């Protein structure tokens, strides 16, 4: 019996990497290569194709031919929440790591994070996350300064501000008291945020580190990329319709979220010379 209240037997030390993919062929190879380059090698990679119409399948199969730690799953287009749930349900590792199909892990990402997790003796720490670089679409230049937000946060603090970038986050299943899955009704908007809130709602906490270990492609064509103004309504829906907070609390949390977002994304862009 484990902390999640189930009889599931998860392999201690194994990291299950969850990668949803929808038409990810332009960047998928580079992303998978960043997993293969990890200095920590006890992992399994679960790629879930969310109804892609490009060459994603061919790219994944080429890697699978040389590495049996990679598994390919497929479903009709249903959103990242459904994709992630499919992978979580068949995963075997104690640790769940998330990696979007266009982001890049630095070679020491898993090694550094697992070391910090294993050194952490606080049983209420269940979600761990690092800092990351905010890069242009081809990851050749930074668009904004590196982002990190160290220290621990509980449920109420996460309502005000979520510094967790999914591709830089790892969940320790042994510390989660009850199984948590992504809410598929949210499709691909704020599903990750609600997932972390649902974990912390169990009386648990997340903890961040200043190490910059991930590259985030800030693509204008991604669902959550571009103008952050279009995220206002989904964020409101999280507070008012998903979490069922009253209008006043929802408005207050939305304001704090917006102010933190302005601080996070309106920093002066870096001047990069070629």
- Arithmetic mean pLDDT: 91
Structural category is alpha/beta
Oligomeric assembly: single chain
How big is the Rg? 18 Å
Keywords: Transferase
Domain Glycosyltransferase 2-like: 16-126
GO molecular function, one term: transferase activity
Protein name: Glycosyltransferase
Task: Explain what this protein looks like in three dimensions.
The protein is an alpha/beta fold and 274 residues long. Helices cover 32% and strands 26% of the residues. Strands 1, 2, 3, 4, 5, 6, 7, 8, 9 and 10 form a 10-stranded mixed beta sheet that branches. The longest helix is centred in the C-terminal third of the chain and has 19 residues, at 247-265. The relative contact order is 0.16.
How would you briefly describe this protein structure?
This protein has 274 residues and is of the alpha/beta class. It is built from eight helices and ten strands.
Notable traits:
alpha/beta; ten-stranded mixed beta sheet; globular; Spore Coat Polysaccharide Biosynthesis Protein SpsA, Chain A; disordered N terminus; 10 strands; single chain
List strands and helices in order, with pairings.
Blueprint: E1 11-21, H1 25-36, E2 43-50, H2 56-64, E3 70-75, H3 80-90, E4 93-98, E5 104-105, H4 109-119, E6 125-135, E7 142-147, E8 151-153, H5 155-160, E9 169-172, H6 191-200, E10 205-217, H7 232-242, H8 247-265
Parallel strand pairs: 1-2, 1-4, 2-3, 6-10
Antiparallel strand pairs: 4-9, 5-10, 6-7, 6-9, 8-10
Helix pairs in contact: 1-2, 7-8
GO molecular function: transferase activity
Organism: Treponema rectale
Keywords: Transferase
